[in-house]
Amino acid sequence: MVVLGLSAGVVTALLGIVLVVTLMVKNVNWFLYEAKLGVKKRSLLPPGDLGLPFVGNMWSFLSAYKSPNPETFINSFYSRYGKTGMYKSLMFGSPGIIVTTPELSRKILTDDENFKLGWPRSTIELVGEKSFIAMGDEDHKRLRRLTSASINGLEPLSMYLAFMDELMKNELEKWSKMGQIELLTELRRLTFKIIIHIFLGASSTSVMEALEQEYTKLNYGMRALRIDLPGFAFHKAFKARKNLVSIFQNVVNERRKEKLENPNKIAKDMLDQLIDAEDENGRKLGDDEVIDIMIMYLNAGHESSGHTTMWATLILQQHPQYFQKAKQEQEEIVKRRPPNQKGMTMKEYRQMDFLSKAIDETMRYITFSLMTFREAKRDVKLNGFLIPKGWKVFVWYRAIHQDPQVYPNPRIFDPSRFDSPRKAGEFLPFGLGTRLCPGNELAKLEITVFLHHFLLNYKLEHTNPNAPIMFLPHTRPVDNCLARVVRLTPYSN
């Protein structure tokens, strides 16, 4: 009986220990992040949960976005806590607030006094400590003025248009003779050629191919957990970054050498301009700053354009009524061209009203960048809730673009949604505020020029129309859109 009594006592003690450990583990995130706020501040936090110990909500996020229905992640917050628009969470290693409404997104993205960029440490390490995503407001404003004027201004866009027009005509013709291709892969290479032309000028094919391969690896690590071990996406991406830095360092060394030999050399591309740039005190950018800015721009400048162009082409083909309407618009524009005109003009680009709406609807429907990151500089009260100082804000673009209260029947593709301007915060393919994507006009122009030529002279024979879709790091078919580009009877003006 004594042995049995002792055994029962031991079992009870063990159960008690297990219960205590379970409670401690279950509440570890609360102890780490919420307890220090104090009772009053905790009472003002939005509804939500900090998920699993240390991992937070990342497991449910990754599970949802690796499933056929990524909306289950945000919908789980809606179903548990109602549509409050703000939810506490633990994402990418940091406590934060998920924001899912246009009005709140607009307030956060345009309030530089209370919010700064808050990208995850992993993303900063991959893109660069000296890139825009880690740069302070003043440095960002100065370098943004320098770089965006060379990308989005009327004069440079007009210059790039002629290059893009000829390149895209040639590429489409080449693809039509190649048989089955991965359309997304070819489009990413095409948009990469354009961004290389803008930022690095003429570059050898071997250097371009090496850069493109490393950027593919880099991009796969952008939304991955920061696990720097062999076999993990972040580890592969970080190795790719090291290779990119080495490649760019060689290019920068060569440019600086050319500058020394010819001090009066006129800047011919963005790299020259970055090397020549100096602040009011005469300080110039160091190699690490130039390289990080280049890595950032070249990654952003071809990924989004390539993916969006692929989806716009595919979706228009899936909706014959919209395909025909866009095609007819292009034919009317070509008919009005003077006989001596060669190629597309900026004036014609601005006349492509329906095609512009179709591209905007594609960007909403797909949502290339599903979220962005901010961080509270101080305690901020918003919508009756508190965002504590130092907490991240995850502005969930996809939730807004897929919200039936903002876009009725959001899974239906309908360009007429853009017959009237959308309210600020409702349409966020390029972000909002002072950190708006500096290459937004260039990206839209690239997509439009490609579709102009495709609509006039080609069609797509999609090999696997029911191919599964991947949502990380960006939305794409698992087969990268296997298809044949078929040449039609050439349209003549």
Automatic annotation (TrEMBL):
Signal peptide: none
Bilayer topology annotation: Single-pass membrane protein
Pfam families per the UniProt record, alphabetical: p450 (PF00067)
Major location (coarse): membrane
CDD domains, A to Z: CYP90-like
Required co-factors: heme
Alphabetically ordered keywords of this record: Heme, Iron, Membrane, Metal-binding, Monooxygenase, Oxidoreductase, Transmembrane, Transmembrane helix
InterPro entries, A to Z: Cyt_P450, Cyt_P450_CS, Cyt_P450_E_grp-I, Cyt_P450_sf
One GO CC term on file: membrane
Sites where the protein binds heme: C437
Gene Ontology biological process: brassinosteroid biosynthetic process; brassinosteroid homeostasis; gibberellin biosynthetic process; sterol metabolic process
Single GO term (MF): heme binding
This protein's record includes keyword Transmembrane: yes
TM region positions: 6-32
Metabolic or biological pathway, per its Swiss-Prot or TrEMBL entry: Plant hormone biosynthesis; gibberellin biosynthesis; Hormone biosynthesis
Cell compartment(s), UniProt: Membrane
Family, similarity comment: Belongs to the cytochrome P450 family.
Role, per record: Catalyzes three successive oxidations of ent-kaurenoic acid giving gibberellin 12 (GA12), a key step in gibberellins (GAs) biosynthesis. GAs, which are involved many processes, including stem elongation, play a central role in plant development.
Listed name of the protein: Ent-kaurenoic acid oxidase
Organism per entry: Arachis hypogaea
